[in-house]
Amino acid sequence: MDFKNLISHCKEYGFIFPSSEIYDGLSAVYDYGPYGVELKNNIKNYWWKSMVQMHENIVGIDAAIFMHPKTWKASGHVDAFNDPLVDNKDSKKRYRADQLIEGYAEKIEAKIIKDIEKAKARFGDSFDEKQFRETNDRVIERQKEIDAVLARLAAAMKDGNMEELGAMIQEYEIVCPESGSRNWTEVRQFNLMFNTQLGNIAGEEGKLYLRPETAQGIFVNFLNVQKSTRQKIPFGIAQIGKAFRNEIVARQFIFRMREFEQMEMQFFIRPGSEMEWYDYWKQTRLRWHSALGTDPAKLRFHDHVNLAHYANAAVDIEFEFPFGFRELEGIHSRTDFDLGQHQMLSGKKLQYFDPELNESYVPYVVETSIGCDRMFLAMISDSIREENVPDAEGQDSVRTVMKLHPALAPVKVAVLPLLKNKEELTKVATDVYDKLKVSFNCQYDEKDAIGRRYRRQDAIGTPYCVTVDFETLENDTVTIRDRDTLVQQRIKISEISDVVSKSVAMDNLLSR
Length: 512
Ligand code: ATP
What we know:
It contains 18 helices and 23 strands. With 512 residues, it is an alpha+beta fold. It starts with a helix and ends with a helix. The structure holds adenosine-5'-triphosphate (ATP).
């Protein structure tokens, strides 16, 4: 399914709505609807259980969004959490300078691809792309240009050299995609943190930030948690919560939002053991994704070449979104940077006494950080598809189905009386529904023909539909239809709960 249709599906079926839509929405801010909130909660639940419940040395917290302003000075966000901003004076549109330059390099790559396609058509089966890339003069020249542009960009970004970025935009004659003009302002640093003002303190002193990541709430609580739970290193602290970033260009639906949710875990370890734990968390996190049945071809690791100021190793787990491979989760070896900084600015010791080594030290940290909303988008885009339904007729012969893992599905089972106006059927169906709803998120639906009702459940990813028909009245059996195989089985009413719970239980994911 293409991306545009996926977005409309999310709205039509109550997964995601644009924020304050009656006022034409607020850019890059979204609300989760009735099915969206269920799916999102299930994702969070899976993450939380796999971290906190499955590791005796990981505990959770829920820190406040507001933190002492010095937190963000210590973490480096006040000085360094910037993107290079440039405005086009004609269109009045804002861009990230680095993205404009990357776009320029992508255009050269597109020319290479065109050459490759032409050559492929000419040489047919005997065409060898690798050889062509290595020997064709024009392609070699273009590749050299791309490499030079990207190397120059990386150097300018590393040095925070805004003039150099401006010079590149001029030199490469990059135009505004909107106005086509080259009438640019200077490139300047733009801090991505939102801020607000405390009511009782005027001026800079009272300036508060909306946290741009949840991690710092964990760092500043490191000793509180360690002492109150008597954890020994290595141990971790997990947190799920909102984060805010004033992204300059926010597109691609819920992939890049200004208000979003993170699921982060900071793992505190002995200095020197970080590579071992980094590898452990890389593999553990990939397993977490694979357990959901995500297409393995859509997941990959991407090592960071340019490391952030706090990291000595970093990798992304990338997912192939409808617009290409992009970061879904980050795993970072953060050294003792954060605790060290907080120790310095607060003047409070943030050390751990290691009884085995008989010494105190500032622990090192390996973090795993995943955006809940990006995970949501990954799950929707991996699972949604359009399919023909054999044996169905007319409009109902094509279905849009979300093949979500049953443990994540918003509704686990739908109970449907075959006919609406037969009280003997609706009575039994209501009884079945009332029993099941104690254990599962269920839905009772009697409106429209049965085929139409199945389509509605497919569209929201309900793994099971239970139909109460005339045979039910004779022998207490119902049909239970499997979303993925479309197979309908007759089972006893008393067996429904077992069948459903076997497949929707979170244990299926956690025991992998
Ligand atoms: P990107 O390079 O895509 O901006 P990032 O490297 O800045 O991401 P991190 O700071 O590592 O991201 O944040 C950890 C996770 O939080 C990311 O892997 C992503 O899933 C999520 N995330 C970050 N920014 C956003 C955003 N604006 N909207 C939604 N999720 C986000």
